[in-house]
Specification:
- By secondary structure, the protein is of the alpha/beta class.
- Helix content is 33%, strand content 14%.
- The protein has 15 helices and 15 strands.
- The strands form 4 sheets. Strands 3-6-8-11-12-13-14-15 form an 8-stranded parallel beta barrel. A 3-stranded mixed beta sheet has the order 7-9-10, with helices on one face. Strands 1-2 form a two-stranded antiparallel ribbon.
- Helix 9 (299-305) links the parallel strand 12 (289-292) and strand 13.
Length: 437
C-alpha cells in the first residue's frame, strides 16, 4: 500500500507532485545525493506535506522526478552491520510539533517536513534519523507548558496508543497511527535515510495503562509488563524503523550503578538480551541496529548483549583520538563505540565553531572510509536552537515559543535565525565533502 498517498488523502492534499523551484534554489549536492541547506527550519515546517514530497521528488537521488510517489520503497542497503558506522541524528519531534495555543500535535508530520534538510546517507555509511518521542509522556501529553514547568519526554506510558504530541488522531479513521509511522519511514527511506526511535528502560519512568484507564508502575519482574514492553517495540519495528536508541543502556543488569541517573529498576542482562534477540527474531529483520547510551568500557559485554554501537568516551575535539579509535576498531563490525557530537543532556553554551569541529572529526577522522565510527548528533547540531533553550531543556519540558498562539510563530522562534542559517550552510558543506567517500 502507498502510505504517503493514504496520508495525503487523509489530509485532503494532492498526491500528484510538481517540480520545486524552491528546492532547486536551496539544494546542496554531493554527486547524486541532494538535500536542502542554508535554511532555517521554519521555511520547511510552513509547507504543506504535499510540498515536502514535491521537494523530495525534486531531490531524487536517481535523477528521476516522481509525479507520483512510488508504491514500493526499500531502505538504503548497507548490509546487516550498517549501525556500527552510521551517523545517528536525533530529531526532537515533540519540539517541532504544531503548537496551537496550549495544544501540541502532529510532531510526526513536522519531522517529515524536515527530512529534505537532513543529509542523505553516504556512499560508505548510513545516516539514521532517531525520533525522540513515540509513546505518550506521563504528564501533559498533547499539551505544551510554560518553559519552567517539567513535562519530561523520559516518562512514558505503555499499553495505550501513541503520543498525542506525535500522531495526528484527527485522521485516525482514515489512516491508523501505525500507517502514519509507515508513511514517515517510506519518506525517509526515499530520501536515503535509515530511521529509529529512542526508548527508556528505567522502571519508574514507565507506566502501564490498565483497561479501566488507570496507570500503574512498570515492573520488570511482571511477565505481563515485560511482554507489553517487548510487543510495543516489535510493533514499531514492523512499521519500518530499523534502530532503537536505548536510554541508560550502560547500566543494564546493574552495571556501574554509581553513575546511574535514571529512576527505578533496570532489566537484567538476560532480560535485555532476550528482548533484543526476540525483536530481531520476531520481525525477521537481521539488519537492526540497537544503540546503547554510554555503553562503553566493557565492549564485549555490550556486543554479547546484542547492541550494535553506543555513545563512547571518545574526545570528539581531538581528531587524532577519534582516528586512533577508528583504526583500533576497524575490524569490530558487530559492535564498536561511537563519537558523541552532542547528546540529549546537552545544556547548550557550545560555540558553533566547536560543534562544526566535532562534526568534522566524526565525518573524517579515520584511515579509510570503511573504518569510520558511528556518530551521535542532536537536532541542534543541524539546526541551532534559540539562545535561551537547549537540547536537554526541550527533552525535560515542552514550551511553545509562539508569540501569537500559532504553530508558525513557534517554529520561527524555536530556532536561531540568521546565524542559524549560516551555521546550517557550514554543516552542509562538511557533509557535502563526506557523502561520496
Amino acid at each position: 500500500m502507498n502510505y504517503i498517498n493514504k496520508l495525503l488523502k487523509a489530509l485532503n492534499q494532492k498526491t500528484v507532485f510538481t517540480y520545486s523551484s524552491w528546492a532547486q534554489q536551496h539544494m546542496f549536492a554531493a554527486g547524486m545525493r541532494k538535500w536542502i541547506a542554508n535554511i532555517v527550519p521554519a521555511e520547511l515546517l510552513k509547507f504543506k506535506l504535499q510540498d515536502t514530497v514535491s521537494i523530495l521528488s525534486t531531490l531524487s537521488q536517481d535523477g528521476i522526478f516522481y509525479k507520483n510517489f512510488p508504491n514500493k520503497i526499500e531502505t538504503p542497503n548497507y548490509s546487516d552491520n550498517w549501525g556500527v558506522s552510521a551517523n545517528y541524528i536525533e530529531i526532537n519531534n515533540r519540539a517541532v510539533a504544531e503548537m496551537t495555543n496550549n495544544i501540541c500535535r502532529n510532531g510526526l508530520i513536522s519531522t517529515m517536513k524536515l527530512i529534505p534538510a537532513i543529509p542523505p546517507s553516504a556512499k560508505s555509511w548510513a545516516n539514521c534519523v532517531i525520533l525522540s518521542q513515540i509513546f505518550p509522556n506521563i504528564y501533559g501529553d498533547g499539551y505544551n507548558k510554560p518553559a519552567e514547568e517539567e513535562n519530561s519526554i523520559y516518562g512514558i506510558k505503555l499499553n495505550t496508543n501513541y503520543s498525542q504530541n506525535i500522531i495526528n488522531f484527527d485522521i485516525i479513521n482514515k489512516i491508523s497511527a501505525d500507517e502514519q509511522f509507515k508513511a514517515f519511514n517510506d519518506l525517509a527511506h526515499f530520501h536515503g535515510l535509515k530511521t529509529g526511535f529512542r526508548t527508556v528502560i528505567s522502571a519508574d519512568q514507565i507506566k502501564i495503562v490498565q483497561k479501566d484507564g488507570t496507570d500503574i508502575g512498570f515492573d520488570w519482574n511482571n511477565s505481563e509488563h515485560f511482554n507489553i514492553f517487548l510487543n510495543a517495540h516489535i510493533k514499531l519495528i514492523n512499521t519500518g524503523f530499523e534502530a532503537i536508541f536505548i536510554d541508560s543502556a550502560k547500566h543494564i543488569g546493574g552495571y556501574d550503578m554509581e553513575n546511574y541517573t535514571g529512576v527505578g529498576a533496570l532489566p537484567s542482562y538476560e532480560q535485555m538480551q532476550y528482548i533484543l534477540h526476540e525483536i530481531r527474531s520476531r520481525t525477521g529483520k537481521t539488519h537492526l541496529s540497537f544503540v546503547g547510551e554510554k555503553s562503553t568500557g566493557d565492549f564485549q559485554r555490550y556486543e554479547n548483549l546484542g547492541l550494535t554501537t553506543g555513545t563512547g568516551f571518545i574526545d570528539p575535539i581531538d581528531f587524532h583520538s577519534v582516528k586512533k579509535e577508528a583504526i583500533d576498531y576497524k575490524y569490530s563490525k558487530n559492535y564498536s563505540p561511537g563519537v558523541e557530537i552532542s547528546n540529549d543532556n546537552d545544556t547548550g553554551g557550545r560555540s558553533y565553531e566547536e560543534r562544526l569541529h566535532r562534526i568534522h572529526n566524526s565525518l573524517f577522522a579515520y584511515e579509510y572510509p570503511s573504518d569510520k565510527l558511528a556518530s551521535f548528533m542532536q537536532t541542534e547540531d543541524l539546526f541551532p536552537l534559540r539562545y535561551d533553550t537547549n537540547t536537554h531543556h526541550l527533552m525535560m519540558s515542552n514550551p511553545s515559543y509562539s508569540i501569537d498562539g500559532t504553530p508558525e510563530s513557534h517554529w520561527e522562534n524555536l530556532f536561531a535565525k540568521d546565524d542559524g542559517r549560516e551555521y546550517n550552510k557550514k554543516v552542509a558543506e562538511l557533509f557535502s565533502y563526506s557523502l561520496n567517500l
